[in-house]
Design a protein that fits this description.
InterPro entries: 4Fe4S_Fe-S-bd, 4Fe4S_Fe_S_CS, NADH_quinone_OxRdtase_chainI
Bound molecules: iron/sulfur cluster
Order of helices and strands: HEHEEHEEHHH
CATH architecture of one domain: 2-Layer Sandwich
Membrane topology: Peripheral membrane protein
Catalytic activity: a quinone + NADH + 5 H(+)(in) = a quinol + NAD(+) + 4 H(+)(out)
Pfam family, one: Fer4
Strand content: 15-25%
Strand order of the largest sheet: 2-3-5
Oligomer: single chain
Number of helices: 6
Radius of gyration: 26 Å
Keywords: 4Fe-4S, Cell membrane, Iron, Iron-sulfur, Membrane, Metal-binding, NAD, Quinone, Repeat, Translocase, Ubiquinone
Largest sheet: 3 strands, antiparallel
Length: 202
């Protein structure tokens, strides 16, 4: 048999217990949250790496990547004929449709797309969630640096190449012959890296 007022007393007991506990509320926006570096906030575009291969747009399950381009002739001194290269005219991502699956970033073979933990881009007008290539490029400044290389792991391809170049000419190992697909560099900010857009010239 229930005692009248028992529920009220239990409720007040919970209230009193909670009042004496320390609060864990994060005071956002006064205090910025400390997000993990791999948080999926927004997608950044490194335009010079984009070869307009369209893989990201084709793989996007929401069809929210819009790409336009044109071809340009590049005259190479000494070459028998002019080469053609793709020039990116438009690269937009509609974040009102994006479901942050990351497939476009995984699909890009040239490391042109990156996650950044930046999330403060809410808009009053939904149309403003369409970010063009300039805005996507601006997000590159917020991409966290790649993780530190495992000291016990194998050296990266870039480190091995740099070590070989540092050796005197006679001590360098013979080239291994033709290789397959060249992988992209690990760092988006590597100044030594050649642009895949140049590599894609035909
Ligand atoms: S994260 Fe997913 S939904 Fe968003 S643009 Fe990339 S592929 Fe499309
Ligand atoms: S971002 Fe990557 S996958 Fe998308 S078109 Fe450019 S190079 Fe291709």
């Amino acid at each position: 048999m229930s005692v009248p007022g028992e529920g009220l007393v239990k409720g007040l007991a919970v209230t009193l217990k909670t009042m004496t506990r320390r609060s864990h509320t994060q005071q956002y926006p006064d205090v910025e949250p400390d997000l993990p570096p791999r948080s999926r906030g927004v997608i950044a575009l490194l335009e010079e790496n984009c070869t307009v291969c369209m893989l990201c747009a084709r793989e996007c399950p929401d069809w929210c990547i819009y790409i336009d381009s044109h071809k340009e002739e590049v005259v190479v001194p000494g070459a028998a004929r002019a080469r053609q290269r793709n020039v990116l005219d438009r690269f937009d991502i509609d974040f009102s449709l994006c479901m942050y699956c990351g497939i476009c970033i995984e699909a890009c073979p040239f490391d042109a797309l990156y996650w950044t933990p930046e999330f403060e881009y809410a808009e009053y007008d939904i149309r403003d969630l369409l970010h063009d290539k300039e805005r996507l490029g601006d997000w590159m400044a917020t991409v966290p640096p790649p993780p530190v290389h495992d000291p016990n792991g194998e050296p990266s391809k870039e480190e091995s190449t740099a070590a070989k170049k540092a050796l005197p000419a006679g001590d360098r190992p013979a080239p291994a012959g033709p290789v397959g697909r060249r992988g992209p560099a690990s760092s988006p900010r590597s100044s030594e890296r050649t642009s895949p857009a140049d590599e894609a010239e035909t």
